Amino acid sequence: MRDKKYNILVTGANGQLGSEIRELSTNYLHNFFFTDKAELDIVSLDEVKRFVKTNLVDVIINCAAYTAVDQAQSDEANADAINHLAVKNLALISKELGVKLVHISTDYVFDGKNYKPYKEQDCTNPQSVYGKTKLDGERAMLKINPLNSIIIRTSWVYSSYGSNFVKTMLRLAKERDRLNVIYDQVGTPTYAKDLAKAILTIIQHSKFNIQNSSSHTEIYNFSNEGVASWYDFAKETMKMAKLNCQIEPIESKDYPTPASRPHYSILNKSKIKSEFDLKIPYWKDSLCDCITKIMNDECWMMSEKNIVLNKSFDFAVRIVKLYKFLCNEKKEYILSKQLLRSGTSIGANINEAQAAQSRADFASKISIASKEARETKYWIDLLIETEYLNINDNHVKSLLEETEEIIRILTSIVKTSKENK
C-alpha cells in the first residue's frame, strides 16, 4: 500500500530531524502536523490523546528528545520526562487508538565496548543519564507494544538545521587557527536528511501498512555507511568547507566531560536495509551535501541581509519619529500605537534574521517582517483616511513609498527562499 495517505504527527518538529522531515514533506501526499513543545506537550498524556483524536492521526514520528548529553547528568528529571515518560505516553496512546509510532533512539544505549557493529539484539548498557533515559523510553515502548511500530537507533546526527558537530566545527574554524578533536571514539555520522528520507520511505512501505498487525514493536539501526572518528569527521568537514584550520587528534581523557561517551558505536544496518529496501549513502557523500547546503544558505542569507539591513533600520527610525509627532500633536493615539508596534516589529524581526544560523530561520523572520510591513502600511493608510495624516505632505508620501519598497523587498526574499529551497 505504498500510495496510502496518512495523517502524520511529527513531534519535536523544530529540531534537526523534524526540520528535515518538514522540508521533505512537500514531496509526499500525507497530511502532516508539525508540533514542538509550544504546540503540543508530549509529557501530557491527555493533551496528546486529545490532539491525536481531534486530528485523526494515523502515524506519530517522535523526533522529540532531551539531547543535551552532559546537561542531563545534572538534570535527570527533565531528561527522563522527555526521553522516557513522554515515549511511554505516546506508546499508550498508539496502542489504545491503533496509531503507528516511529520513535528515534540512540547509540548511547550501548556501552561502546564492542569490537564489531552493534546489532539490534545486542546487550544494552548505557553509561550516561542520557543513554539510560533513552533506553527506559525504548523499554516502555516495547512493554506497551503498540502494533506494527518501530524504534530506530541512530548516531552522530547532524544537519543544516539546529546545533550540531558540523556547524560547531564550521563556526570554530572561522574563529581559531587550531582545534583539538577526539580520535579514540569511533562511530558513523548520520545526516538527518538521510534519516528523514528513510523514515518517510518506511512509512510508504507495505510492511508498515496501517492494516498490518505485526505482533511486536521492532528495533532497527540507522546511520550513514562507513566508519569515522570525531577527528576524521572534523578533518573532512574542514576539507569540504575549504577552511584553513588545523585539526589535532586528542584522546578522550584529554577532553573530560560530565557524561561518558561510547568509544565504539558503529551500528549494523543490515536489518533495516533488507526489510525496507533502503539504499544508505556513504557518510562523506552526505557530509558534502550538507556542507554545500550550509554554505549556499550562508551566501544567500548574506546577500539578502545586506539588502534589508540599512533600509529596515532607517525605516524603523522614521516610524518612531512619526509616532512621536502624532503623540505631540495629540492625534489618534490607538492607531499611532498600532503603527509603532508593527513598524518597530519589522526592525526587530529583521535584527533576529541577521543573527539566524539557518536559511529556514532567516526566511521565517523575514516572512514575519513582511507581514508586519503590510500591517504598517494598513495603519498609515488608515491614518490618512481618517485625516490624521495628510497624503499631500511630502514626508507622508515618502514614508508610503518607503513602506511599499520594504514590502516589495521582503516579499521578494520570502518568494526566493521558497523557490530555491
Report on this structure.
With 421 residues, the chain is an alpha/beta fold. The chain folds into two domains: 7-158 and 189-225 and 261-281, Rossmann fold, CATH 3.40.50.720; 298-419, Up-down Bundle (de novo design (two linked rop proteins)). It contains 13 helices and twelve strands. The protein has helices spanning 16-24, 45-54, 69-72, 76-97, 129-144, 165-173, 192-204, 230-241, 270-276, 283-328, 333-354, 359-385, 394-419, and strands spanning 7-11, 31-34, 59-62, 100-106, 150-154, 157-158, 178-182, 186-187, 190-191, 218-221, 228-229, 246-250. The strands form four sheets. It has a six-stranded parallel sheet, with helices on both faces. Helix 1 packs across helix 7 and helix 4 (76-97) packs parallel to helix 5. The longest helix has 46 residues, at 283-328. The protein is globular, with a radius of gyration of 25 Å. The relative contact order is 0.10.
Give a nutshell description of this structure.
The protein is globular and about 80 Å long. The protein is α/β, with parallel strands linked by helices and 421 residues long.
Q: Output the CATH class name of the largest domain.
A: Alpha Beta
CATH architecture tag of the largest domain: 3-Layer(aba) Sandwich
Determine the N-to-C terminus distance.
30 Å
CATH topology of the largest domain: Rossmann fold
Helix-strand topology string: EHEHEHHEHEEHEEEHEEHEHHHHH
Question: What's the overall average pLDDT, rounded?
Answer: 87
The CATH H-level homologous superfamily of the largest domain: NAD(P)-binding Rossmann-like Domain
Instruction: Specify the number of helices.
Output: 13
Beta-strand content bin: 5-15%
Work out the helicity level. 40-55%
Shape: globular
Overall structural class, as computed from helix and strand content, comes to alpha/beta
